[in-house]
Amino acid sequence: MSLRTLPLLVLNLGGEMLYIVDQRLRVQNIAENRARKVMNDIIGGIFNKKFMDELFKPQDLYSRNALRVVFERLVNASIMRLNRSSMDKLYDLMTMAFKYQILLCPRPKDLLLITFNHLDTIKDFIYEAPKIVAQVDTTCRKLIDTYGSLSAGEFQLIRQTLLIFFQDIRIRVSILLKDRVQNTNGHFVLPTSGPVPWGTEVPGLIRLFNSKGEEIQRTTFISGGNYQLPYREGSFDLHGDRVIKLGTNMYSISRPMETDTSGAAKNMSSHAKENTAPNPLAKEELNLLARLMGSLDVKEPLGSEAGFRLNLFPTDEEEELAAQSRPEELMYQVINIQADKDPQRNEELARIMGEFEAAEEPRQMMSKGDDLLAMMDELEGLPS
Question: Which of 58, 72, 85, 100 is least crowded, fewest Cβ atoms below 10 Å from its Cβ?
C-alpha cells in the first residue's frame, strides 16, 4: 500500500464531485450568483492550505465510509444542502467515474495527468475568483513537487492501492451505460484500440536477441486491435496540454446521470461482512480523519443567507424512493469520533466538535437537508 495515494484520491474525487454539483445547479436553474457562491465556497474549502497540508502528509487511505464523511462536509460548505439520498448518489457517481479513469489510465504515471485535468477544469469554474485560483495553483505545484520525481514502480503501487480501494464497487451509471463503456452487470468495457502508453510501441512485433544483446530475428503478429502511437507526452507542468482526456468534465453537456444500485448489492456482500467485523485500525483511522477534518475551513451560511437544497434526482418522490430501496450492503455507516473520554489527549477532537456545534440557527431553516448535517453533529467517536 502506498502512503502517497490519499491526495490523488481526494483531488480526483473532489473534481468529479464539482462536475456533478455544477451540472445539477444548472439543471435546477439556480441563480447564477448563488451557484457561483456555492462553487467558490466548496472549492475554497477543498483547496484550503491547512487542509492540503494535512492531506499531503504520508498516510494510509481511509475507508470509503470515512472518506464519505469528508466529502459530505465539503459539499455542505456553502448555502447548499444535500439530504442523505442525494449524497449517496453523488458519492456513487464520483467513485464510479474515477474508478473508470483509473482502469483506462494508459500508464500509472498518467494518474497525475488525470489529476491535472480535474484541477484545470476546476480553475475554469472559479476564473473570477483569483484568490481561489491561486489556491488551486499552489496545490498543482505541491503535486509536481510530491510526485514529479517518483519512479514508475512507485506510481504502479499508487495505482494498485487505488484499485484495491475501489474493488467490487460496480454501481451502474446511466451515462456510462449509454456510452457503452459499462455493462449491465456494472463491469467496465475496456477498449482494445487507441493510443498506446507514451514510451511504448504499437503491439504486433516480436524481437529476438542473442546472448550479446544483438537483435537476430523479427516476427510480426496480428494484435487484434487498432493501436496508434501518441503524438506527444502529456504536460506535467502547471499549464500545458495534458493530451489524455481522462478526468475532463463528462457532464459539460447536460445529460441524465442516474445510478442503479440493485445489481451492486451482491458484489458488496464481502464488504458488508467487513463492515461488521471489528477493525483494529478503526480508532487510528478516526483520529487521522478528525485531524484532517479539523483542518477544513468550512463556512457556515449566515442568518441572512437563504439556503437551498440540491436534489440529484429528477423529483423529490424519486429521491425518497431511492432512500427506501437502497440495498443495506451499500449503506454508508455513520462514523463517530469520541472527544470527551480523555480531554488531554483529545483536545484537538474537542475543538473540532465545538466547531461543528456552532451556528445552529442557520441550519434550522434547512428542512430536508438536516439529516445530512446530523451526521456531522454526531461526531462523538470511539473511546480512547
Answer: 58
